[in-house]
């Protein structure tokens, strides 16, 4: 019997995260795209809009990028006079996708299992869907691809809508994610999870302050050129 482990076309969790970060930042920060290794690493380790939260080293991200480039998911670009290589995703070309489908797939890759309504709410900056039906149409397109990129899950007990998940890591990985999500929803560890969210937000605020400080320093350096 063939299993996911036998399928060479599947992506591991790090590859999924790196690829999704490239697709996300292309839409959110086009002025800083293609992206440097450092920027991709920061995007992978971002505390907001990520499920699960990861902590990847630059070395791990660099190795992941090499694997993705070998499989034509990512391009490495070295511009004349540039000190670092920049990277861009090839999801549109690889899977023949328009931006609405890229947006839906990216959100599922970054944030795990979601309903069509959640995808619509969270994908606004990547692509503006007018209705949930528009999201469902994009999801169905991804489901109908061969091989399929997305799967529609059965409605969970107590839920009103089905959730969707990507299949880039295979059906077995999606099944494990569905099982983990069902247990996670019934743990009752509200206080602990709330404390974790507060800590994550505090860490992100500190990171944002550092980034603002770095930008201010860069601007000051830039301004000196005209004084």
From TrEMBL:
Top-level division of the source organism's lineage: Bacteria
Keyword Coiled coil carried by entry: yes
Gene3D superfamilies registered for this protein in UniProt: Winged helix-like DNA-binding domain superfamily/Winged helix DNA-binding domain
Coiled-coil regions listed: 198-225
Keyword set, alphabetical order: Coiled coil
InterPro entries linked to this entry: DUF480, WH-like_DNA-bd_sf, WH_DNA-bd_sf
Similarity field: Belongs to the UPF0502 family.
Name by which UniProt lists this protein: DUF480 domain-containing protein
Organism of origin: Pseudoduganella rivuli
């Amino acid at each position: 019997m063939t299993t996911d482990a036998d399928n060479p076309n599947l992506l591991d969790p790090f590859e999924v995260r790196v690829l999704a970060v490239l697709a996300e930042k292309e839409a959110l920060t086009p002025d800083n795209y293609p992206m440097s290794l450092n920027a991709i690493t920061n995007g992978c380790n971002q505390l907001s809009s990520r499920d699960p939260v990861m902590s990847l080293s630059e070395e791990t991200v660099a190795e992941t990028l090499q694997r993705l480039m070998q499989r034509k998911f990512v391009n490495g670009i070295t511009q004349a006079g540039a000190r670092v290589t920049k990277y861009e995703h090839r999801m549109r070309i690889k899977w023949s996708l328009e931006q609405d489908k890229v947006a839906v797939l990216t959100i599922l890759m970054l944030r795990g299992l979601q309903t069509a309504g959640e995808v619509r709410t969270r994908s606004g900056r990547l692509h503006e869907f007018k209705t949930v039906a528009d999201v469902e149409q994009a999801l169905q397109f991804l489901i109908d691809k061969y091989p399929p990129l997305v799967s529609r899950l059965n409605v969970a007990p107590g839920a009103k809508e089905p959730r969707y998940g990507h299949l880039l890591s295979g059906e077995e990985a999606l099944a494990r994610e569905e099982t983990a999500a069902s247990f996670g929803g019934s743990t009752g560890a509200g206080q602990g999870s709330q404390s974790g969210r507060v800590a994550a937000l505090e860490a992100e605020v500190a990171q944002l302050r550092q980034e603002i400080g770095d930008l201010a320093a860069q601007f000051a350096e830039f301004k000196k050129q005209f004084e």
